[in-house]
Design brief:
By secondary structure, this protein is of the alpha/beta class. Helices cover 27% and strands 14% of the residues. The protein is built from 6 helices and 6 strands.
Protein backbone atom coordinates (compact mmCIF):
# COMPACT_ATOMS: atom_id res chain seq x y z
CA UNK A 1 0.00 0.00 0.00
CA UNK A 2 1.27 3.43 -0.86
CA UNK A 3 1.54 6.16 1.75
CA UNK A 4 -0.77 8.76 0.25
CA UNK A 5 -3.64 10.91 1.37
CA UNK A 6 -5.05 11.42 -2.10
CA UNK A 7 -7.14 8.76 -3.80
CA UNK A 8 -9.07 8.73 -7.03
CA UNK A 9 -11.67 6.28 -5.70
CA UNK A 10 -12.59 5.27 -2.16
CA UNK A 11 -14.78 2.25 -1.43
CA UNK A 12 -16.63 2.25 1.88
CA UNK A 13 -16.81 -1.47 2.51
CA UNK A 14 -14.58 -4.37 1.56
CA UNK A 15 -17.40 -6.78 0.82
CA UNK A 16 -17.67 -8.90 -2.30
CA UNK A 17 -18.89 -6.07 -4.53
CA UNK A 18 -16.42 -3.49 -3.20
CA UNK A 19 -13.44 -5.81 -3.61
CA UNK A 20 -14.51 -7.03 -7.02
CA UNK A 21 -15.17 -3.56 -8.43
CA UNK A 22 -11.94 -2.17 -6.92
CA UNK A 23 -10.02 -5.05 -8.48
CA UNK A 24 -11.65 -4.57 -11.89
CA UNK A 25 -10.96 -0.82 -11.85
CA UNK A 26 -7.33 -1.34 -10.79
CA UNK A 27 -6.86 -3.85 -13.60
CA UNK A 28 -8.48 -1.57 -16.17
CA UNK A 29 -6.46 1.49 -15.11
CA UNK A 30 -3.37 0.76 -12.98
CA UNK A 31 -2.72 4.49 -12.56
CA UNK A 32 -5.81 4.87 -10.34
CA UNK A 33 -5.20 5.30 -6.62
CA UNK A 34 -7.88 3.15 -5.00
CA UNK A 35 -8.60 2.77 -1.29
CA UNK A 36 -10.89 0.08 0.13
CA UNK A 37 -12.01 0.76 3.71
CA UNK A 38 -13.43 -2.12 5.75
CA UNK A 39 -14.59 -1.77 9.34
CA UNK A 40 -14.06 -5.42 10.10
CA UNK A 41 -11.12 -7.78 10.09
CA UNK A 42 -9.17 -9.27 7.19
CA UNK A 43 -10.13 -12.88 6.49
CA UNK A 44 -7.17 -14.19 4.51
CA UNK A 45 -6.22 -17.72 5.55
CA UNK A 46 -8.56 -17.79 8.57
CA UNK A 47 -10.04 -21.31 8.95
CA UNK A 48 -13.56 -19.97 9.57
CA UNK A 49 -13.42 -18.46 6.08
CA UNK A 50 -11.58 -21.18 4.19
CA UNK A 51 -13.16 -24.32 5.67
CA UNK A 52 -16.91 -24.64 4.99
CA UNK A 53 -17.48 -26.84 8.05
CA UNK A 54 -16.54 -23.87 10.25
CA UNK A 55 -19.28 -21.67 8.78
CA UNK A 56 -21.40 -21.90 11.92
CA UNK A 57 -18.73 -20.14 13.97
CA UNK A 58 -19.93 -16.92 12.31
CA UNK A 59 -23.33 -17.39 13.92
CA UNK A 60 -22.02 -17.55 17.48
CA UNK A 61 -22.93 -14.54 19.64
CA UNK A 62 -19.19 -13.99 20.20
CA UNK A 63 -18.38 -13.77 16.47
CA UNK A 64 -16.11 -10.87 15.49
CA UNK A 65 -16.89 -11.21 11.78
CA UNK A 66 -20.63 -10.56 11.99
CA UNK A 67 -22.99 -7.84 13.08
CA UNK A 68 -26.39 -9.20 14.09
CA UNK A 69 -29.23 -6.95 12.97
CA UNK A 70 -32.39 -7.41 15.03
CA UNK A 71 -35.66 -6.50 13.36
CA UNK A 72 -38.79 -5.07 14.88
CA UNK A 73 -41.39 -7.44 16.34
CA UNK A 74 -43.48 -8.68 13.41
CA UNK A 75 -47.18 -9.49 13.83
CA UNK A 76 -46.86 -11.97 10.93
CA UNK A 77 -44.30 -13.85 13.03
CA UNK A 78 -46.39 -13.78 16.22
CA UNK A 79 -44.32 -10.92 17.56
CA UNK A 80 -40.94 -12.52 16.97
CA UNK A 81 -37.97 -10.47 15.79
CA UNK A 82 -35.87 -11.66 12.88
CA UNK A 83 -32.13 -11.70 13.48
CA UNK A 84 -30.08 -11.29 10.32
CA UNK A 85 -26.30 -11.76 10.30
CA UNK A 86 -24.40 -9.18 8.26
CA UNK A 87 -20.74 -9.61 7.35
CA UNK A 88 -18.28 -7.33 9.13
CA UNK A 89 -15.04 -8.48 7.56
CA UNK A 90 -13.22 -8.45 4.24
CA UNK A 91 -15.53 -10.29 1.87
CA UNK A 92 -18.62 -9.02 3.68
CA UNK A 93 -21.75 -11.13 3.81
CA UNK A 94 -20.39 -13.46 1.16
CA UNK A 95 -17.44 -14.28 3.40
CA UNK A 96 -19.64 -15.33 6.30
CA UNK A 97 -21.95 -17.22 3.93
CA UNK A 98 -18.95 -19.26 2.71
CA UNK A 99 -19.20 -17.96 -0.84
CA UNK A 100 -17.22 -14.80 -1.38
CA UNK A 101 -15.37 -13.99 -4.56
CA UNK A 102 -11.61 -13.92 -4.19
CA UNK A 103 -10.62 -10.63 -5.73
CA UNK A 104 -7.61 -8.53 -4.77
CA UNK A 105 -8.97 -8.29 -1.21
CA UNK A 106 -8.16 -12.02 -0.81
CA UNK A 107 -11.49 -13.09 0.66
CA UNK A 108 -11.84 -16.85 0.94
CA UNK A 109 -14.00 -18.93 -1.37
CA UNK A 110 -15.80 -22.05 -0.23
CA UNK A 111 -18.98 -22.28 -2.32
CA UNK A 112 -20.06 -20.66 -5.55
CA UNK A 113 -23.51 -20.79 -7.10
CA UNK A 114 -25.33 -19.02 -9.89
CA UNK A 115 -29.00 -18.86 -10.72
CA UNK A 116 -30.66 -20.32 -13.82
CA UNK A 117 -30.75 -18.13 -16.94
CA UNK A 118 -34.52 -17.87 -16.54
CA UNK A 119 -34.12 -16.21 -13.12
CA UNK A 120 -32.01 -13.42 -14.58
CA UNK A 121 -34.37 -13.10 -17.53
CA UNK A 122 -37.25 -12.69 -15.07
CA UNK A 123 -35.39 -9.84 -13.36
CA UNK A 124 -35.28 -8.09 -16.72
CA UNK A 125 -38.63 -9.04 -18.27
CA UNK A 126 -41.03 -9.59 -15.38
CA UNK A 127 -39.62 -6.98 -13.02
CA UNK A 128 -38.73 -4.40 -15.66
CA UNK A 129 -34.97 -4.14 -15.08
CA UNK A 130 -33.24 -3.61 -18.44
CA UNK A 131 -29.70 -4.96 -18.51
CA UNK A 132 -30.33 -7.55 -15.79
CA UNK A 133 -31.17 -10.46 -18.11
CA UNK A 134 -28.95 -13.48 -18.69
CA UNK A 135 -27.62 -12.07 -21.97
CA UNK A 136 -26.15 -9.12 -20.04
CA UNK A 137 -25.17 -10.75 -16.74
CA UNK A 138 -23.65 -14.09 -17.77
CA UNK A 139 -20.80 -12.45 -19.76
CA UNK A 140 -19.93 -10.45 -16.63
CA UNK A 141 -19.97 -13.61 -14.50
CA UNK A 142 -17.75 -15.34 -17.04
CA UNK A 143 -15.10 -12.67 -16.44
CA UNK A 144 -14.95 -13.59 -12.76
CA UNK A 145 -14.31 -17.32 -13.09
CA UNK A 146 -11.80 -19.87 -14.27
CA UNK A 147 -13.94 -22.96 -14.70
CA UNK A 148 -11.92 -26.10 -13.91
CA UNK A 149 -14.59 -28.80 -13.95
CA UNK A 150 -14.51 -29.47 -17.67
CA UNK A 151 -12.53 -28.98 -20.85
CA UNK A 152 -14.05 -26.31 -23.12
CA UNK A 153 -12.36 -27.88 -26.15
CA UNK A 154 -13.95 -31.26 -25.43
CA UNK A 155 -17.30 -29.71 -24.47
CA UNK A 156 -17.83 -26.41 -26.35
CA UNK A 157 -21.18 -25.86 -24.56
CA UNK A 158 -19.19 -24.87 -21.45
CA UNK A 159 -18.06 -21.67 -23.21
CA UNK A 160 -21.66 -20.41 -23.30
CA UNK A 161 -21.91 -20.13 -19.53
CA UNK A 162 -18.44 -20.34 -18.00
CA UNK A 163 -15.28 -18.27 -18.05
CA UNK A 164 -11.77 -19.66 -18.20
CA UNK A 165 -9.46 -16.79 -17.23
CA UNK A 166 -11.00 -15.00 -14.23
CA UNK A 167 -9.73 -14.65 -10.66
CA UNK A 168 -12.19 -17.17 -9.16
CA UNK A 169 -11.32 -20.84 -9.68
CA UNK A 170 -14.53 -22.88 -9.89
CA UNK A 171 -14.81 -26.68 -9.81
CA UNK A 172 -16.83 -29.42 -8.18
CA UNK A 173 -16.33 -29.92 -4.43
Amino acid sequence: MTDTKDYDIIFAGGGTAGCLIASRLATADPSLKILVLEGGMHTKDLPAHTQPARYFSHLAPTSTTVTFNIGNPAPELTGRQLITPSGRCVGGGSSINSSSIKADCNAAVAMYTRAQRSDYDDWERVHGNPGWGSADLIPLMQKTETYQAGDPEANPKLKRTHGFSGPLKVSYG
